[in-house]
């Protein structure tokens, strides 16, 4: 597939803004920096951050086993997704394909960017209908969003379905792996060499425990990364975010321990939920939340809110009638949830 043909003409023609710190990339020791109109008095954040976030990328590259040249970072994955839209989708002309029930941001970003959304609902097992998806795509279908493990259903999609979609869809396939760190499935980022049209997004917001710093990750070919680099705001990941990410990524064993604790709590919660009289189905989860069907989702949601417990009511999502989504909390929080469910 020729990626150059998929890029918007305006983006192809763009001459990117060159920031002061882009032009000078040497080491900062012993240099006198009079290039960026900063306040020279040191306070920890008086300098512009590294626009290429090299230390964060180095650590991520080590942890994830993906070369730094194949990584782009954003202000949350939401910024990464927005960059992907702006690189490939011509407003009022192109369309994208989503597979509901799924993450709401794909639709919101399409609406902001004036891009048509084509939807193909997942089947009754929350798996993609591969034939229907490939049939509905046309020459203006630039992006296909595959969220696996999927939010809000929690399951991973079958590898052979994903592989066929990546192979046969004539546009960019974005695999959103926000929850991959809770799954024992191998990341599709390991297959970048096989598919030139593949983009994989991940985030530090979930397993890595850093939702507050806003750091999203994009893995793709060097060709796609260089397109996204052309259009990203120069200093899109701030200094405090980079510093905190570095500290946390350097203690990756702690994250892995927390993930294991969350997974064993998930198993315990699923077991306890199955004993609740008004819970009729608990869907398999490859993530840090579970989707459960109840007798009356809105009633149960309101009862929990009154007791001070906030969960997500997904009853209005296609295929999710009377479904509630529970994030796995600490053992104490999960106990409060179960005790409350038993009492209502
Ligand atoms: C939580 C979540 C994200 C994370 O977004 P950030 O902007 O990185 O916090 C991305 N995709 C899905 C499906 C999510 O559930």
Provide key terms for this protein:
344 residues, Aspartate Aminotransferase, domain 1, seven-stranded mixed sheet, four-stranded antiparallel sheet, 11 strands, globular, binds pyridoxal-5'-phosphate, EC 2.6.1.9, PyrdxlP-dep_Trfase_small, histidinol-phosphate transaminase activity, pyridoxal phosphate, pyridoxal phosphate binding
Structural class: alpha/beta
Helix content: 25-40%
Number of domains: 2
Name of the level-1 CATH class of the largest domain: Alpha Beta
| Percentage beta strand | 15-25%
Catalytic activity: L-histidinol phosphate + 2-oxoglutarate = 3-(imidazol-4-yl)-2-oxopropyl phosphate + L-glutamate
EC number: 2.6.1.9
Enzyme class: transferase
Pathway: Amino-acid biosynthesis; L-histidine biosynthesis; L-histidine from 5-phospho-alpha-D-ribose 1-diphosphate: step 7/9; Lipid metabolism
Report on this structure:
It is built from 12 helices and 11 strands. With 344 residues, it is α/β, with parallel strands linked by helices. It has 2 domains: 3-250, 3-Layer(aba) Sandwich (Aspartate Aminotransferase, domain 2); 253-343, Aspartate Aminotransferase, domain 1, CATH 3.90.1150.10. The strands form 2 sheets. Strands 1-7-6-5-4-2-3 form a 7-stranded mixed β-sheet, sandwiched between helices. A 4-stranded antiparallel β-sheet has the order 8-9-11-10, with helices on one face. α3 runs parallel beside α9 (239-249) and α4 (76-88) crosses α5 (105-112). The termini are far apart. The protein binds pyridoxal-5'-phosphate. Pyridoxal-5'-phosphate binds at residues 76-78, 103, 147, 151, 176, 178, 203, 205-206, 211, 216.
